[in-house]
Write the structure tokens for this entry.
Amino acid sequence: GSRSFVPAVVIGTGYGAAVSALRLGEAGVTTVMLEMGRLWDKPGPDGKVFCKVTNPDSRSTWFKKRTEAPLGSFLWLDVVNKDVEPNAGVLDKVNLGDMSVYVGRGVGGGSLVNGGMAVTPRRDFLQEALPQVDMNEMYDRYFPRANAGLGVSTIPSDFFESTEWYQYSRVSRAAAEKAGLGTVFIPNVYDFAHMRKEAEGTAPKSALDGEVMYGNNHGKRSLDRSYLAAALGTGKVTIESLHHVKALRQESDGTYVLTVHQTDGLGNVLARKEIACKHLFLGAGSLGTTEILLRARETGALPALSADVGGGWGPNGNVMTARANHLWNATGAKQSTIPVMAIDDRNNPVHPVLAEIAPMPAGIETWVSLYLALAKTPERGTFTFDRVTDKLGLTWTKAHSEPAVAAVRSLFDRINKANFTDYRYDLFGSGLNNFAANFCYHPLGGCVLGKATDLYGRVKGYQNLYVTDGSLIPGALGANPFVTITALAERNVERVIAQDIRA
Ligand code: FDA
């Protein structure tokens, strides 16, 4: 294999990685980003880059023979999932025992597949999660910077109140109000001017055409259109896609050396490379970053890593549930894939929950109200690493999810009671399931700030080694995480560039 040296390497191209690369590039530091997924810029045979949720093909899924959409069933029929050719598709589901974690694969990481919900967390919740971080600085400086960099806005209320595409949200709002619960608008990175044109028929449809989890062809400001575009614009940053970081070690002069496999879209290894650098930023996400560090610790490559690496993990209290509405409360055959409203019970002293009103873009009337609820609970898991099998594990069991389910059940029992409605039991796999807490979209923790790292993401035990992503935030935030990941990365990289790189 070949060996090269660059001053700075960033692993991954998600939120933390993209922020770090942009600011390094602006500071004049030559930086290479390594991403195991594809660069999503070439149209397939249908002329589109990404495929729809309702019609998945080999672009949808990361090396699986069959798609693994979370709403696999309807009336217990497996109608959504399809057999596909194993390929470097955009959405992965990593199965870790009783918990499965969905992650984005490609240049842009989770921003390619997520719902775009851009939530600044409640100040008291963030303070509780990151007690040593200065909240004034976060809310006065870094959240505004993150929201501007991401291109966050809120749906105009005249459009929301009048369009058929958000009938499903208005029906859920009315049901919540009957139980005395309030709702809030949830900001998003989707371009609502574009969405309005989609509704009017003057722009190509994306959110209004069932696109989201396997990528949006239009409208969504994913990172490749925001932070990553800006990073490339500095002229100092390059992105190597289909480059999978396999191992990390350090030489006696402090240089970090990465073993990297360059692959094709079918998973064949095209080249084995060694990429050396002085400053190394880990932005491979909660699972990816923690795996790289655990492997290094457990194989003895970086023996001084803290025992806290692997700890503090949680699924952000993710619980999905669904209600069956009365026949006179149709939720609409037309549903925008971009969620813009949540039922807000965060003030509940026993069971604080933010329940986002999710679409069910089936293309037919289903009378279903679907929710992604975020419960703020203290259960945490720990990642493990098996040297023999070279596999990441997680100590999360079904019991760890039960307090979050109990919180969400308490909220939706109230809503059902006030509306004389019931749960849907047929949507989450075989058997009678009205709650799905065995998968998550929001993995958090593994290299917690102030535990596995110092208060700015510097990995304990080593110099010039940094964590920048969702693994810094312990287990539950009471808000969707990407705005916080972005803001925290902005805060940390500013300090690191000033103190470790410019100095
Ligand atoms: P992120 O996971 O974004 O990026 C990590 C990148 O590193 C990936 O591109 C990965 O391929 C790459 N990588 C990993 N290991 C590697 C290795 N060894 N070598 C090279 N590359 C490697 N959040 C939110 O705030 N609002 C929302 O609406 C949603 N909705 C949502 C829906 C779905 C379906 C998902 C899957 C997720 C969400 N999320 C969300 C969660 C959000 O997307 C997530 O929190 C962030 O993407 C996490 O950002 P990070 O920077 O931590 O890593």
